[in-house]
Amino acid sequence: MTLRSTDPSAAKRRRVSATGRVARFDRAERTVHWSTAVLVLTLVATGAVLYIPSLSVAVGRRLLIEDTHIYIGIAVFVPVLAGALGRWGANLRSDLAEMNGFTRDEVTWLRSLGRQGRSAVGKFNPGQKLNTNAIGGMLVVLFVTGLILRWGNFLPVSVRTGATFVHDVFAFALVVVVIGHVGFALTHPQALRSMVTGWVPQRWVRRHAPAWSVPRAPSSKGPTPPG
To answer: Is position 226 within any domain?
Structure first.
């Protein structure tokens, strides 16, 4: 994460339909989001079964659950990589680049818990950026420690014990962050709907993302909605 200046070129990424809706996420971005969400929730569910004895006994088939957990953990980054590296991933790459840093006004927004610097909020508010980077960082740590736990028998016991502790701590933290993410999404239905349909109303942009300037809606028939 870096401290950066506001990117004036961001405006060229916006599309507005004839009805005044703003294209927020295209099909590739939505596919990556929901695919990753399914994989992460599967990791949480299988991890809970492996960690909680009562669940492990109730579900049974521990070896299957363990293998599922391991290979889903390996695959969890596949949707992001496939989306970002493909020719269809221009918007996703732009969003990831925008996530990688805060402006000074966004830092003010974070420090004041959203009470100041609201005019500087763009497509993603600083809380969303922080959440995305937190989840990404946690998944990387869980990935590395998971590899050690599964295939690190050649490593010293101290390393494997430390990896187990770190893996458990970050798994709990991930669950907390994911619950918070889902909770915030449910309390912001327009933002949640945009991850399903791809669009938000212009009034939502003016209220929640004022720095994400929107061009005037065309008078003729607008572009086909994404996805």
So the answer is: no
